[in-house]
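As the work plan foresaw, our protein records have gained a structure token line. A representative record is set out beneath this paragraph:
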Amino acid sequence: MKPKEALKIHFGYDSFKPGQEEIVDAILRGRDVLAIMPTGAGKSVCYQIPAVLLPGLTVVVSPLISLMQDQVKALKAAGIPAGYINSSLTEAQIARVYDNALNGAYRLLYVAPERLETYDFSAFARQATVAMVTVDEAHCISQWGQDFRPSYLKIVSFIDSLPKRPVVSAFTATATEEVKNDIACVLRLRTPKTVVTGFDRENLWFDVESVRKKDEYVLDYARRHPDDSGIIYCATRKNVDAVHALLVKAGVRAARYHAGMTQAERKENQDDFIYDRSPVIVATNAFGMGIDKSNVRYVLHYNMPQSMENYYQEAGRAGRDGAPAQCVLLFSAQDIIINRLLLDNKEFTDVPEEDIGLIRERDARRLQIMEGYCRTSSCLRNTILSYFGEAPAAPCGNCGNCQREFTETDMTEEAKKVVNCVYETKGRYGLGILTGTLLGANRARLKELGTTEYRTYGALKHLSEALLRLLISQLLLEGYLVQTADRYSVIRLGNIAPLKDPATRVLVRTHEDQQPETQRRRSTDSLTKAGFALFDALRRLRLTLAREEGVPPYVVFSDKTLIEMSAKTPQDKAAMLRVSGVGEMRYQKYGAAFLEAIAAFLQENPGAVTSIADPEAPPEAEKAAGKKTKKPKEAFYLRPGDGEGFRSGDLYLEAEIKDELNRICTAENVKPVFGADIRRLMESWGYITEKKINKMLLPFPTERGTAKGIVTGTKTSQAGNSYTVLLYPPEIQKEIVAYYTKNDVR
């Protein structure tokens, strides 16, 4: 059997994703492999396909029990025999697994790294024919990585103990150049085939929101996405418990997960999330490694993570099915304090004393970089990609910062005062002392240090602390200042020579705090009302089958596969096998049931059109032909039929109308519509106007607008300020949809 045949039969895919085929080919030729692929890129397929074809057993070293169990369930559903050994099994069950493996009943065997040095496993491995050892989450073997686990060092001696050295393959989602080289060195990979597929996850929307009332934001977000599965990460157990209680009280079906719970509680709550009994889970970073849940539509970070590696790994748990998903980080200065406290109390086990100081220094540097990400006004996606060594050519145009309207302010004179203050400190103090001095803060500590006597004391008291911090971040970014990576970092002068040139300008970009202006299109957006109904029917069938077999729903079929079924409505085996994600093995288990459900739906709804998109020509076809120069985006418009999907409400805000318009739009390569566009349209129609009240221009309906049913209301911003809003009735919502609909589009 050839690799592509095995891919189609077991996983239902016609072709490999980028990087997969060359990894599979290298392993089958007997070559070691080191692969760095983002979450969702299909790392597991890269070793599971060779495991099916190699003459022997593949031992997969995996860090978590939940990961092993989920992988084995999914493999069995795909017709690939596999087993695992971990602490959840009894001694009798473990003995049975050994017997099965020695008798050739498994192609893959999952084990924890701690298991490798036990006497019984060593004895078993010497009798078995081990064709490959696969190291999952391989960054855990590097003490310079963000998640070092000393137990991973046992892998090397285990490989050396085998009668014949097997192929060694190592996989991770996040690794800098330094960590990548360390993995290869520590594992003693022999001239490995190294594949880095790129870190960009185009389906993920990244945003950073600086909000004071995080609870309100999280609750509002969960309410606006009631049918979506999401993860909400918190830095502490206390925050997990508080946010979880908030959501449950509001009627959101949410679970929680942290190390302070019993193992039984964690297992139950994790299963509730995976099996969609609780679509939302609130957790610390103890949750998630190896969780193969494909339909997570959003990941919210209630607190800033400690490193870019942690953030990208956690955010990457969204959108594993390739459909659009949102990753929003809620940032506040308090997050930095929390993370410094956590790092100060970090435990070091089995780490040489002489290395601890260096690791702490690198942790501090990672935290600084993460803070820079939260404060940057540059493209967020490119900031992430640059950290991992990629060089993006242009802003992505599809993240929170790229969609914001920034105001550029010349702060050259203020910058010089910051530099002068750092000069006066002689580089001895950190950010808190620096900002306090410049703002003229009345603090005992400043008096104790004598900074109240500096010429620069109070020099920037006209600025807000947030804007001053933003300016200092800009100066650090441009190299005028440098921040040490010590446990207690200080700020020193960098290369300030360019500032002596009168032509040099320091420009700081600022924006008004706002919600993301675009609601990312979902893969279901091509479905008509009938298509949604069929999709819901197929999801109910999937849930029934999953419960009967005791497996997570996505093990049966992913959301992406069900959406394609709903669009294509296959009516025989050949058509069903053309649906991405339906292989021969899954068809044998589930195909007939889904064909029957589709046939029943079409019989009950004769002539129903389930999709307005051409299912035979998905957008991915363009990607397969290679990257092309992007065409300029057209002004926003709706295609005929899009308006049928508009979910009208009694009274909608401008933001709610634009969210609905962006959601239902199936036109390709168009700019999103913004709330300001709705406002301008209403003004041009004479429905609203602005009145000056207390020196502020506020929107109000005209006489004509009032007759149409437009009313005013009051909202409270995240900063706690009240402001006037306009609410539009269904009649005007329909007029807006009609205005944007292009009837001459084919």
Confidence is low (pLDDT under 50) at residues 513-521, 614-630. The longest helix spans residues 353-375. The longest strand covers residues 204-210.
